[in-house]
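Mods, move this if it's the wrong board.
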Amino acid sequence: MPSGKTSPLKQKETACDLCGSRDYRLLFQCRGYPIMECRECGLVFTGSVMAPDDRESLYKNEYYVHAAGYAESIKRSAAAGNPEYDERVRLASKFSPQIPGTVLDVGCGSGGLLAAFKRAGWNCCGIEPSSDLSAYARDIAACEIYEGTIESTPLPQAAFDVISACHVLEHSASPHDFLQTCFRSLRDEGVLLVEVPDFGCYLSRKQGADWLPLYPDTHLYHFTISTLQRLLKATGFRPVRIRRYGGLGILSTQESDNSVKDAGHAKNIVEQSLCNVAKKRIFDARRYLYRIPAVKPFARYVYWHLMRMNEYISIYSIKSR
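Not the wrong board. Structure tokens:
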């Protein structure tokens, strides 16, 4: 994401959002930001943050337009439809007690996911800080879009059957408070979908500070499957489905569209691209390879290791009563 350092950074001094500890250690520096880890629970976060006013301005004015043509590209994607949106609708419907029901998409962008829910007969509304994308989402999804954040939007309690927050939680100043707001706004047995970059993935561990989805100026927290599950359970949710997916997805694609700043980033982009190609080839071929007894163990081993290179976590959770 674009650099938003418009005023001096403030060192983060609050207790860990997951366990309350103040015992941290420095993992590494990324683009001038310290990446810290709680020694007690392992939650990773960015140790210095922008002032709240600077962050609000960043999301409203710069967040989706820092790379030429990016805003237009995600608008076209929303208008054309996306198989990933349809898969999210399918899984949310699988776990929701009410089908179709009412869905809230937090950080709805250009409205592509809401449009997919709308096609499936759901009642929809969204929250989006960008005024440009809010207006576009209203046209694409033909539903109410609140301009702002979940913290600034007065949401009714127990009003939604599904809440989605795709690539939003990592931006929150307090993921714990964010999830508690979702809990209050969901009906009993409602579904929460959370998607975030996977800090525990192979490429993150291998590339460290050069891992593309870090974006420490806007990503305040960096989750693994373990820390995200613990946070969900601590706020009253029961995870029921975990997916790992992606690699050179929407975040790293926009980085590659922009000027590549150094050879390390160029190498990472090529590395991730090759991983994606290999994963797709194995995925397409595995149904045939698994039928050959002599090949099946090797194919499963290769496929399992390639799946570890997925860079994003998707967790569907149920609100506990």
